[in-house]
Design a protein that fits this description.
Layout: E1 8-12, H1 20-31, E2 37-41, E3 51-56, H2 59-69, E4 73-74, E5 77-78, E6 80-83, H3 88-93, H4 99-120, E7 147-151, H5 159-166, E8 172-178, E9 181-189, H6 192-202, E10 214-217
Antiparallel strand pairs: 1-3, 1-6, 2-3, 4-5, 7-9, 7-10, 8-9
Length: 220
């Protein structure tokens, strides 16, 4: 691991049975807690199977993600993470696209960044470009409970995504989805205190850029 620190991290030993779109969403859900992600590259070609790149805006975010998620059991396989050997512009070219497609992607990225910058401007800031919590947004709550109730979840939420988010907190026991409802779920911990720690840390976490998760204690 003599590679110099980089905004882009390289991940291998990824479970290659996972569909590309689900893989990218799950990587986003897991890594965006460390900071703003500019791009995720996950290809299903023979040469690139079982590998992915995550491009962070901040170098510190890439470093924290690398340290804290090293060997994390991602879809039952421990991830191996290191800094990418090349810069993120070069990484984007591993897609094998040329000029035209890349110009379109650059345009799209610029538009996204402008939208994020616009979202940053209001001081009251109910919208935040960060994937993490918006602490100013108080969510009405019930008395403490060892079970958390999640709502405002995006349609693509699945049990694996939520488990990856919550099992980094001590005392995590299980995630329970509600049949026929994609927008709500329950997460059980061993104690009320442990549930509270996870609730505070992930309040307002964005699994996708549009849905900020709301977490309360479940009603007893």
């Amino acid at each position: 691991m003599d590679i110099r620190p980089n905004h882009t991290i390289y991940i291998n030993n990824v479970n290659d049975k996972i569909k590309k779109e689900e893989l990218k969403r799950s990587l986003y859900a897991l890594f965006s807690q460390f900071g703003q992600i500019l791009d995720i590259v996950a290809l299903k070609t023979m040469k690139m199977r079982g590998q992915a790149f995550v491009v962070f805006k901040e170098l510190t975010a890439a470093t924290n993600a690398l340290r804290q998620l090293q060997s994390f059991p991602f879809y039952n396989k421990p991830m191996r993470i290191q800094y990418a050997k090349t810069d993120s512009e070069i990484i984007s070219k591993t897609r094998g696209t040329f000029g035209e497609k890349e110009k379109k992607k650059d345009k799209k990225k610029k538009t996204q960044e402008q939208a994020l910058n616009a979202a940053k401007k209001p001081a009251s800031g109910s919208a935040t470009p960060q994937a993490n919590a918006a602490p100013s947004q108080q969510v009405p709550d019930n008395p403490p409970n060892y079970i958390l109730f999640l709502n405002n979840l995006p349609e693509e939420t699945n049990e694996m995504m939520l488990s990856m988010l919550f099992n980094q907190f001590p005392g995590f026991k299980e995630v329970r989805l509600v049949p026929g409802r994609h927008d709500i779920a329950f997460v059980e911990f061993e104690s009320e205190g442990q549930a509270g720690t996870a609730r505070d840390a992930l309040q307002g976490f964005r699994i996708t850029s549009t849905c900020a998760m709301k977490i309360t204690y479940a009603k007893k």
